[in-house]
Amino acid sequence: MYDFVKKHGVILEKTDNSFENEGVFNPAAIREGNNVHLFYRAVRTGNFSTIGYCKLDGPLKVVERSDIPILSPENSQEFQGLEDPRITKIDDTYYLTYAIYDGINVFGAYAISKDLITFERKGIITPKFNFDEYAKLIRQNINKISDKHLLFYELFESHHLSNVMKADVFVWDKNIVFFPRKINGKYAFLHRLFPTIQIVFFKKQQDLNRDFWIDYITHLSDHIVLRASYQHERSHIGAGCPPIETKDGWLLIYHAAEITANGRIYNAAAALLDLEDPRKVIAQLKKPLICPTEEWEKKGVVNNVVFPTGSALFDDELYIYYGAADSRIAVASMNINTLLTELKLSGL
């Protein structure tokens, strides 16, 4: 971890409220005026998730907290919950993305809002292919991408899980993160088909149909933004906080999972992407930006986890909100100019 990073500790923990009595973590964050609005994953006993809400005065002080979820499951595809939200403002509309989980399958979905109070669900925006369909598509491109794109899913198939579960098992797609403006006239979002980070451009949601995804996955290498390159991300990576536009490029804070003898360690990492073509990586830190070093990051429902999902900029100080050990919400900060300088020095 870099010495210019300051950890501020835990700012939100679980309560006795039934919807968040197991843990609160992985928050979406957006600043409006002097307030930061957090929309967080709230977990109740049995690992059922909803999205909770709290408001901060400044970057750290909780001044308001809802005692009921903001969003809850409404159909069978969301049975196990809504997980790991992120939020981005494009023009005058807020885009809240999250993963939906039915206990077997995971898809990326989103909702929109004008006021951060009421949200209109827009549904799933990620592909829906079973493992056989996905394998046939991706094998056409396998020489240009990591074979891990298949290994994760072949593990499921090798255990015949679709037969055991007596249900359809689809390819997981999660970590949906919108860019805060259109790029070349199109919406853009990052997502994660294990184990790399990819990007999607589209003009309207109806464009994201089955034919679109068939072509997309067949040519997946054209859409990969970041690959797992360094020791601290040898397992996989995924988009974290919404990209921040700077004069030097899009600043992307993402999560990186490392495989160790004691299990996976989740770190926060950073990269810089080209402003007009974010598929071009300008720079990438070669070691973790934030890693689990404190007891509240090392011990919890899942040990050794720093999972960044939201950020807020106050003057030149960038605050990163993250899930700590899948149990609580913590904050770290750094001078954004120092971070950008470090990135440019790191290069590729």
Give an account of the 3D structure.
This protein is mainly beta and 348 residues long. The protein has a single domain (6-346), classed as 5 Propeller (Tachylectin-2, Chain A), CATH 2.115.10. The protein contains 6 helices and 21 strands. The protein has helices at residues 131-138, 148-158, 161-165, 210-218, 295-298, 336-346, and strands spanning 6-12, 23-32, 35-44, 48-57, 61-65, 81-90, 93-101, 106-113, 120-124, 174-178, 187-192, 197-202, 224-226, 236-239, 244-246, 249-260, 263-273, 281-284, 306-314, 317-324, 328-335. Strands 14, 15, 16, 17 and 18 form a 5-stranded antiparallel beta sheet that branches. Strand 7 and strand 8 (106-113) form a beta hairpin. The radius of gyration is 19 Å and the shape is globular. It starts with 5 loop residues before the first strand and ends with a helix. The mean pLDDT is 93.
CATH superfamily name? Answer: Glycosyl hydrolase domain, family 43
* Largest β-sheet summary: 5 strands, antiparallel
Shape: globular
Secondary structural class: mainly beta
How many whole angstroms does the radius of gyration measure? Answer: 19 Å
Helix and strand sequence? EEEEEEEEEHHHEEEHEEEEEEHEEEH
- Quote the average pLDDT: 93
What portion of the residues fall into strands of 2 or more residues? 35-45%
Quickly count the helices: 6
Task: Tell me how many strands there are.
Answer: 21
User: Level of helix content?
Assistant: 10-25%
Give the assembly state of these chains: single chain
